[in-house]
Write a sequence for this structure.
């Protein structure tokens, strides 16, 4: 199935079969099921919803903030999506970019952060099977304003294509999931360009998959507008001609999403 069809199928399953329970942390009821997944071949399409407009540039800015800037301060972000979890100094605690930015040491070699470790190891050995970026640090959980939802990504090169699997502990399907899939698709394209290979399979695995009760009306509206591309052109990511090959030098302005024409805006509440 296309990305859109997979997402909508999962969303409908949560809506119609999810167990209604109150979430203690947020105080809001959810419809929840245990596990869902989405698998996309990035050679076929760029995964971004067509039935509802997704501000992919905001998603990309968050990706740059975490993986390139290694920041945990909203002053470095350029959007307000993390304002609810920031303290008076702008910090969200020892989470996301802070964890990615940790020094990684293996066999006497020191890497300045986890991204450098993954890119360098895969560059040296495309068959490498330990290319993991892990943000779930039990020692720092108490100092995280919000522990990472997508907490792990696993990278592999097979047949000169870069594949990525992301693992998400908590999946807010209307709000977070479309952002997360699109965001990691962008990151996979960028890593692949850095490594001089083609983008491959993006697999998004989600544990607690849920819809908040105050999102149900929006979900019903979204399902009515389900857009199945069929034979029409699907979105594709490409880079500008002047895009550097080095991940650390790439900018938002280098990214172009072709064939993306979604206009329908549906606003969903974000539970803190």
């Amino acid at each position: 199935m296309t990305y859109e069809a997979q997402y909508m199928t999962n969303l409908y399953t949560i809506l119609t079969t999810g167990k209604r329970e109150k979430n203690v942390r947020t105080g809001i009821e959810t419809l929840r099921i245990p596990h869902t997944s989405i698998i996309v071949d990035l050679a076929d399409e760029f995964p971004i919803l067509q039935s509802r407009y997704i501000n992919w540039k905001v998603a990309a800015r968050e990706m740059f903030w975490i993986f390139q800037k290694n920041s945990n301060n909203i002053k470095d972000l350029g959007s307000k999506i993390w304002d609810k979890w920031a303290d008076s100094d702008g910090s969200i605690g020892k989470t996301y970019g802070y964890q990615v930015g940790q020094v990684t040491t293996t066999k006497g070699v020191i890497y300045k952060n986890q991204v450098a470790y993954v890119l360098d190891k895969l560059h040296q050995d495309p068959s490498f099977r330990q290319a993991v970026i892990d943000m779930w640090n039990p020692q720092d959980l108490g100092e995280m304003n919000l522990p990472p939802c997508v907490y792990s990504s696993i990278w592999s090169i097979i047949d000169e294509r870069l594949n990525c699997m992301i693992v998400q502990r908590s999946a807010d399907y209307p709000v977070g999931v479309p952002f997360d899939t699109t965001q990691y698709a962008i990151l996979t394209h960028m890593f692949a360009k850095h490594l001089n290979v083609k983008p491959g399979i993006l697999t998004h695995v989600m544990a607690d998959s849920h819809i908040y009760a105050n999102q149900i009306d929006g979900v019903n509206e979204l399902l009515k507008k389900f857009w199945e591309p069929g034979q029409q052109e699907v979105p594709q990511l490409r880079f500008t001609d002047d895009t550097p090959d080095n991940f650390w030098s790439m900018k938002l302005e280098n990214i172009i999403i072709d064939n993306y024409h979604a206009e329908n805006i549906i606003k969903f509440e974000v539970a803190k």
